[in-house]
Amino acid sequence: MRLPEGRRIVFLDIDGTIIAHDGTIPDSAAAAIREARAAGHLVLLATGRSPREVDPRLEEIGFDGAVLSAGAFVRIDDAWIIEHPMPAPMVRRMVEGFDALGLDYALQARDGVHPSAGRREDVREVLGIGEAQLGEAAEGAAHAHVAKAVFLGREPDAFARVHALLAPEGFTVITGTMPSLGTGGGEVSPGDVSKGASILELLEREGIDPSRAIGIGDNNNDLEMLAACGVGIAMGNATAEALAAADEITGAVHEDGLAEAFARHGLIARPRARRDPAAP
Questions:
Q1: Are the beta carbons of 81 and 203 closer than 8 angstroms?
Q2: Where do the domains of the chain lie, and which CATH numbers do they carry?
């Protein structure tokens, strides 16, 4: 991976940053990404989604690589250059915790998503993925290459109970990345794996100073990324925690926030202001 002199490397969250929560991708976002790459900047995805969960529309836009599964895997072109799967004993302990609390869950692995038996459709709907992205039931899945898990509670205190049980044991437990679940669900990952940690590892590996990196996100699993990059930018629709952690705030997804941030930092030419159709 070569970053030309005077160019930047950009890490973009997906949900709530490129893709709005209604599932649409603003034309301005896709155009900004293509224009920035054409100008020699590197643009990578940085998402909590596992490799099989990434929306195929993003492949059509084009990226230089991806930080996946909240930092567990990093891919440049077709090569896996960083892999930090959850150790099998840690996976077992996490699953034991879900079972003890009576919670359904899905293991997010490099090869796909493995939902609790009987919850395939629920998991598919929550994650917004197709049947092809789902693997065998979690109860029978191998524990290799598991990056993290999503838990689905039926009560609003599910997050609090999982956090109380697993956070003291070195797990990171977050909520808010899936708005439909509220505090009844969340994600669990190893405490030492994050988007930010893997971005720093990638930058060191490639000899790129973090000051040349820009990170843009909207949620609590973006906090480490916003801190790791030279410039951390929160979308206008970001959580309170992400807004507080960011160096800058741009517009929301449907306010052309991504294109606005790219133009502000010289990655693309500033687009002409859109004419108000109601104006004379």
A1: no
A2: 9-83+194-264 (3.40.50.1000), 88-190 (3.30.1240.10)
